[in-house]
């Protein structure tokens, strides 16, 4: 079929019955995608399920090729493409034009996935993950979901229990907790800045019980303890095993070494996905009801003062029945997809979604970040109480009561 220049114009020719059927078919496709992405890649909640504009594209592909998921090689190649759209911000720039381009690539039968991958390679140059790609910070970083995916799929084990952190071993949709390898407060005391403290290479995932036990312990102590208890557990989280790198004075060297290990692991699993050679693993049992992607649990364990304030604000918003916002939200260049800045806490669609302008909270950020936010159309607040007043007086007409 010829894909129309204005895709939505074709809806004018669709009657009610066909539209309803289309909704049901889309629901089926999206549910299958969620199940496959969660079960195969471990991306099982909203904070790591990124590249959302790839989902309508893949839903269309499943409609055209209903047998795709029954072919393990094609299924994994589809996931290979999906992960790379996530990593490189395929739809973070001119979303409509890029999506239309990709939709055209899948309309003709045969080799649709290869055409998509070729197009992605042409736009990127190559699809190799490099250590410096992990040189980013915060949970809004594009490579944050990749770190979570590696943990879920490559048999990383919980430090204390030794339990494999694959999703099916922990229970369907069980959420892990984010742990800072070097505790934040102690890094600040050693003079490291916010971006370095929250560097992606300082993140790992543990179960709640273990996270509480480790707490703000020094790596020189708890690394040795858990490695003795479960030999190989450090390497399983791509943690450098040279004790000299576990000192606070060597923190930058630790980050550099871990980025090398993470990049190597990422390239290996991505290549295996493309080649269809990922070792088969048991998936969680496919549910009878549609998969529900649950939000990540808000955890304040060892949060620094700024992050604790942001998490408190998210909880306050939830109590008011309003969207909690997105922590560490990226603003990208619409043409190139390049990350321009990261906002501490943002509501890209507004607090009253679709009815108010984008808004964000910025705590102790440089003026350059404020300028980028302003240029992108955000109203920004540098004081949380001022933001709450904005929510109360401008959006609801009254100041909401603050819950005890």
User: What is the arithmetic mean of pLDDT?
Assistant: 83
Class by SSE composition:
alpha+beta
Main sheet?
Answer: 4 strands, mixed
C-alpha end-to-end distance: 59 Å
Helix content: 40-55%
- The low-pLDDT segments are 281-303, 399-404
Radius of gyration based on Cα positions: 22 Å
Description:
With 404 residues, the protein is an alpha+beta fold. It is built from 15 helices and six strands. It has helices spanning 16-41, 54-64, 72-88, 95-107, 112-124, 144-153, 167-170, 184-189, 194-197, 208-214, 219-229, 251-275, 305-319, 367-375, 384-395, and strands at residues 177-180, 203-206, 326-332, 339-347, 359-361, 379-381. The chain has a four-stranded mixed β-sheet. Strands 1-2 form a two-stranded antiparallel ribbon. The longest helix has 26 residues, at 16-41. The protein starts with 15 loop residues before the first helix and ends in a 9-residue tail after the last helix.
How does the SSE layout of this entry go?
Blueprint: H1 16-41, H2 54-64, H3 72-88, H4 95-107, H5 112-124, H6 144-153, H7 167-170, E1 177-180, H8 184-189, H9 194-197, E2 203-206, H10 208-214, H11 219-229, H12 251-275, H13 305-319, E3 326-332, E4 339-347, E5 359-361, H14 367-375, E6 379-381, H15 384-395
Parallel strand pairs: 5-6
Antiparallel strand pairs: 1-2, 3-4, 4-5
Helix pairs in contact: 1-2, 2-4, 3-5, 3-12, 4-5
Summary tags:
404 residues; four-stranded mixed sheet; two-stranded antiparallel ribbon; disordered C terminus; alpha+beta
């Amino acid at each position: 079929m010829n894909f129309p220049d204005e895709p939505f114009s074709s809806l004018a020719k669709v009657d009610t019955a066909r539209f309803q059927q289309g909704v049901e078919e889309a629901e089926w496709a999206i549910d299958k995608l969620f199940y496959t992405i969660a079960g195969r890649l471990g991306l099982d909640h909203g904070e790591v399920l990124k590249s959302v504009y790839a989902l309508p594209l893949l839903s269309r592909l499943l409609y055209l090729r209903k047998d795709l998921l029954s072919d393990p090689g094609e299924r994994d190649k589809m996931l290979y493409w999906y992960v790379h759209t996530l990593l490189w911000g395929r739809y973070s720039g001119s979303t409509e034009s890029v999506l239309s381009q990709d939709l055209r690539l899948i309309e003709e039968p045969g080799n649709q996935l290869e055409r998509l991958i070729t197009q992605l390679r042409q736009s990127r140059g190559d699809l190799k993950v490099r250590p410096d790609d992990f040189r980013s910070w915060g949970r809004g970083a594009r490579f944050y979901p990749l770190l979570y995916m590696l943990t879920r799929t490559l048999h990383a084990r919980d430090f204390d229990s030794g339990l494999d952190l694959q999703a099916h071993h922990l229970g369907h949709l069980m959420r892990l907790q984010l742990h800072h390898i070097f505790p934040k407060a102690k890094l600040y005391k050693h003079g490291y800045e916010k971006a370095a403290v929250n560097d992606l290479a300082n993140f790992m995932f543990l179960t709640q019980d273990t996270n509480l036990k480790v707490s703000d312990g020094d790596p020189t102590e708890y690394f040795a303890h858990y490695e003795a208890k479960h030999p190989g557990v450090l390497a399983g989280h791509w943690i450098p095993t040279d004790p000299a790198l576990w000192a606070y004075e060597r923190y930058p060297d630790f980050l550099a070494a871990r980025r090398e290990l993470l990049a190597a692991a990422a390239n290996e699993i991505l290549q295996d996905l493309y080649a269809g050679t990922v070792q088969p693993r048991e998936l969680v049992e496919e549910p009878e009801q549609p998969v529900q992607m649950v939000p990540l649990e808000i955890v304040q364990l060892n949060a620094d003062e700024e992050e604790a304030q942001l998490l408190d604000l998210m909880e306050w918003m939830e109590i008011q029945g309003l969207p909690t916002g997105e922590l560490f939200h990226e603003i990208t260049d619409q043409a190139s997809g390049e990350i321009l800045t990261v906002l501490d806490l943002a509501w890209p669609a507004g607090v009253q979604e679709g009815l108010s302008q984008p808004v964000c909270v910025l705590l102790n950020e440089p003026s350059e970040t404020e300028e980028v936010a302003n240029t992108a159309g955000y109203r920004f607040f540098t004081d949380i109480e001022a933001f709450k007043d904005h929510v109360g007086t401008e959006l609801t007409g009254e100041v909401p009561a603050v819950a005890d």
